[in-house]
Amino acid sequence: MGRADIRLRICVGATVLGFAVALMTAGGCTSLRFAEGSTPFPSKTPVMTDDAGKALVDLPPSSEPLRLIVFDFPWCPPCSDAWEAVGTVSKTVPGGNVRIYRVLFDREKFDTARGTAETAPLRPAPPPPPVAFPVTTVTALPAQFRERYKMEQAPMLLLSDGSGKILKRWVGYTPGLADSLRGEIARRLK
Description:
- By secondary structure, this protein is of the alpha+beta class.
- Helix content is 33%, strand content 24%.
- The protein has 2 domains: 1-30; 31-189, Glutaredoxin, CATH 3.40.30.
- It contains 4 helices and 9 strands; from the N terminus they run H-E-E-E-H-E-E-E-E-H-E-E-H.
- It has a 7-stranded mixed sheet.
- Helix 2 packs across helix 4.
- It starts with a helix and ends with a helix.
């Protein structure tokens, strides 16, 4: 096999990979319901519960001008990395500016006479890693949340203003997440 054949195979492989990534993104691997500029909450019907089990259509109110909404699974390694980035950033931002909403959208499946059903986790999730921002945790109602927001991937972080408008969205974890979060929060607090 000559050099030209190898280059052609690499080029074709890169093109196919790029096409596959584009299809996955457009096909719903990330939720387009959380687009920048949108206001996804409140929902028309309850999609999550608070710690007391009360059904919610919106995130609980806060006095902070910015909200960082973190969607995660407690068992997800990239989610742990994202929390580490959030913790790093929280040490550099003055208090009273950002409220974190941790949205757990994990689910447990079980068999019923009619087939498989889902429920929110039966065991309480461990607390998030320590951060300097105040954290409010809510649990997504599996079927309702997924139906409303078409979301399956974690972590996802949304920065929104006090009215709930999404200012910035991060999907997945990258090593530059802390710097990106810090820069976006600083820009929005000016």
